Amino acid sequence: MKEPQMIRVRKHDLHDLIQKKLEAAGLSEEHADGVADSLAFADARGIHSHGAVRVDYYAERIAKGGTTIEPNFRFNKTGPSSGVFEADNGVGHVAARKAMDEAIGLAQETGVGIVGVHEMGHSGALAYFVKQAADKDMVAISVCQSDPMVVPFGGAEPYFGTNPIAFAAPRMDGEPVIFDMATTVQAWGKILDARSKGADIPPTWAVDANGEPTTDPHQVNALLPVAGPKGYGLMMMVDILSGILLGLPFGKRVSSMYTDLTKGRNLGQLHIVINPAFFTSLKEFKQNIAQMVDELHATKAAPGFSQVLYPGELAEIVETDYADAGIPIVKDVYDYLISDTVHYDQYDHAGLFAEQD
């Protein structure tokens, strides 16, 4: 299959292109900047499934009224260490960042901060938010629900979403350790990325309408949970913590990302922030994280591997490489970003998935 043409773009230039496109769709400068920062962060770390490839979708939802342009953000503190951030279906990237600020503040005061984000839009890569906490010397876990596109273990039709989990911890003399994963073998964004590149996918990622494994990203009807029943259990846990716990729709009731772009998503997310200084010496904690990384690096590598990396380290390596060479963006995506077109109106028919309700 022919490889797509790629364009190399500097991170700050990519940020500016995304911001301008989202402002053209109707977002305020502040919120467009917030979304652009998150998407450029993802592309800069090689998480292209949550980067510029999403802009057309966000722009169309904004233009069609499915995103609240001037949301009434408010934080309701529910206890010494807890609260709910009302997102009013504003852009999820901005709402989640503001909610994480609240969780960090609670953890600085009480040792732990747990904040739910209520009725938000899609928020992109969770790594962005847990890094926000790790940069403040906090440990963070973030989980969020997504629309049903995953067959439960033993099932033949979708029920849960990809329901990602992210973790971050600060370390001494180095970037935070950041781990971000979908509870599926791959995130749906990876399917979009494969479509944009005209590439096949491994047969272990997804199934077609008959429940059979497929290598064609255009034939994907549902994704598969990572590690079978284990991933299935994790995605159920995430849906409970970010959906049921916040009084939001869950499972197959979670709104579709692509079917009706005129309505808000009403999604949920949960940030859990822990202040290490309330449990041990912060300096010792960060030194031990650094020691753990050093010991993993020193572990004998298996055949075919040059070195053992810590979970999430590949994204850090990619970020360093892209800082020198530029971020590779599919030319079609780049051409859209530099065009006068706000969106391609590609999501307003049946959607990429049929209704699962």
UniProtKB/TrEMBL annotation:
GO MF term list: oxidoreductase activity
Family stated for the protein in its record: Belongs to the LDH2/MDH2 oxidoreductase family.
Family matches, as NCBIfam families: AllD, PRK15025.1
Highest taxon of source: Bacteria
InterPro entries membership: Mal/L-sulf/L-lact_DH-like_ah, Mal/L-sulf/L-lact_DH-like_NADP, Mal/L-sulfo/L-lacto_DH-like_sf, Malate/L-lactate_DH-like, Ureidoglycolate_dehydrogenase
Protein name as annotated: Ureidoglycolate dehydrogenase
Keywords: Oxidoreductase
